[in-house]
Design a protein that fits this description.
Helix content is 89%, strand content 0%. By secondary structure, it is an all-alpha fold.
Amino acid sequence: MLMRLSHDIGLYFYDVVVARFDLWAAFGVIAQFVFGARFLVQWIASEKAEKSVIPVGFWFLSISGGLMTLIYGFARRDLVIILGQAFSILIYVRNLMLIAKEAKRRKAKDAADAAVGAEGAAG
C-alpha cells in the first residue's frame, strides 16, 4: 500500500510539475515569487526599524503580484484565484491611497509649522 501511495504521489507531482508545465504555469510561479517578495521587503524594513512596519514597497509588490496572479487566474479560468485577487487588489490600492493622503496632510502641516516658525523668528 505504501509503495502504491508513493508511486501515485510521484505521478501526481510529475503531472503537475512536468507534464502540465507551460508558459502560463511559469508566469504563475513568477507571480507567486513577486507576491511573496513583499514579505521580504516588510521583514527587512521591520528589522531596520526594530518594530513592525509596512513600507510602501510592500503595497506595490502586493499590487504587482496580485495583478499577475489575477491574470494567471483568468488564463486558467480559476474562479477562486480571480475572486481572491480581484478583491485583494482593491484593498492594496486603497492602502496606497491612504498613505498618499497622510503624506499630503503631513506635508501641509509641516509647511504651516514652518510658516509659523518663520513668523515667530521674524517678530
